[in-house]
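May I ask for a single protein's sequence together with how it folds?
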Amino acid sequence: MAYFYSLRGWLELEIEQFEQAIFLVKSLQTSHEQDPKTGLYLQGWCWGESPVNWTRYLFYGADVTAEGLELFEDTLFKLREMDLNLSGFFQAQGEDGEKKIIYEVIDSEVFVQEEVFVQEKSRILMGVQ
């Protein structure tokens, strides 16, 4: 059975660069619309149609498998290669709460941090005191 992550977060872009980023995402969505899994995962990208003040946001939110994480990372790095001024934050939380991946985007550099939580199992030892 597949292991799922709840992946969600955002990228901040300058208004002048926003259309370039959306063009890439729309192109990927169109080119993979016949692929059931890839097409589905690319639908997780969304954005508001009108700017609110001086920053535009590109959001991602979906429950994905490891394959979906790879696709997300590929898309994130394609955006980074476009020489855009990117900042943002994404978190992928494993379905059992034991795995967490943080993607932090600072000045177009992507930093990835993986954490694994193992819950300690405690035992009550019964004996004579």
Q: What stands out?
A: Helices lie at 15-31, 36-42, 66-81. The two ends are 46 Å apart (CA to CA).
